[in-house]
Design brief:
- By secondary structure, the chain is of the alpha/beta class.
- Helix content is 37%, strand content 35%.
- The chain has three helices and five strands, in the order ββαβαβαβ.
- The chain has a five-stranded mixed β-sheet.
- Helix 1 packs parallel to helix 2.
- The longest helix is centred in the middle third of the chain and has 16 residues.
- The protein is globular, with a radius of gyration of 12 Å.
């Protein structure tokens, strides 16, 4: 998994590409550090470039949600498509995460 960061006046966005798998814990730490630096903005996790997510990747989404929530930062997950969206739906993460198209 790779990601790029974009900032606007009201949001910090991380756009993920590639595959989000068990081996991506270093990338997860970088995104958590990004969340820790947010002040008065919302956090958007853009999955439109993500091709695959495994169960560990789904768990990482929950960790990111927990990190954002513990800092009172609204987090939105957007752009999940294809197999990535199906995995999120099968795990019923839409009940926990704020999903947007």
């Amino acid at each position: 998994m790779e990601f790029k960061t974009y900032r606007t006046s009201d949001a910090v966005e991380a756009r993920l590409t590639g595959r989000m798998e068990f081996t991506d814990h270093d990338g997860l730490r970088e995104i958590v550090a990004l969340i820790e630096g947010i002040r008065g903005q919302r956090f958007v996790l853009d999955l439109s470039g993500l091709e695959f997510i495994d169960s560990a990747g789904l768990g990482m989404l929950l960790i990111l949600q927990e990190e954002a929530e513990s800092r009172n930062i609204p987090m939105t997950v957007r752009g999940a498509r294809g197999d990535v969206r199906r995995s999120i739906d099968l795990a019923r993460l839409g009940d926990i995460l704020a999903l947007a198209d």
